[in-house]
């Protein structure tokens, strides 16, 4: 895990694009394979993410981490993601700028009607490529949860699921807890 957020050269076109999406007035936006996507508020999406954060809360505190929907940069690509939940060590969360997926302990994406395939395919591949150790996909359209682990350049090598909502999903170390999916 890197100790410092990634920094950019001033004349970098990638930086200019990523800077622009971070400063859309009144709108959160992410870059997915060079395409700007706004991240509109959605009650179903947010309530699911909130349920996950509440279940993770005691363990996140115990681990000295924080959770939220922070910005994740994928340097060298036209990707800048805003996951539903990212768990990161507290000392990294205090710094300025985005983190990279390898600096997380867990990334959670909750699908919406407009971005389900992005979360299922594109982000899963990129999170693995950039070393996110655990990726939990909460698929509201399929009504299932899948945990991906053991990341590598070709994707995740371990998959646990899909599990229908209502089936607990076990998050391994450092969490070692069963996530209740019955209210997703």
CATH architecture: Alpha-Beta Complex
The end-to-end distance, rounded to whole angstroms, is 31 Å
| String of helices and strands | HEEHEEEEHEHEEEEE
Structural class: alpha+beta
The level of helicity is 25-40%
Taking all residues together, what is the mean pLDDT? 89
Counted by DSSP, the helix tally is 4
Q: What's the CATH class, please?
A: Alpha Beta
Strand percent estimate? 25-35%
How would you summarize this macromolecular structure in one to three sentences?
With 184 residues, the protein is α+β, with helices and mostly antiparallel strands.
Write the layout of secondary structure elements.
Blueprint: H1 13-22, E1 29-32, E2 35-38, H2 43-62, E3 65-68, E4 72-74, E5 79-81, E6 85-89, H3 90-93, E7 106-110, H4 116-129, E8 134-139, E9 144-149, E10 158-164, E11 169-171, E12 177-179
Parallel strand pairs: 7-8
Antiparallel strand pairs: 1-2, 3-6, 4-5, 6-7, 8-9, 9-10, 11-12
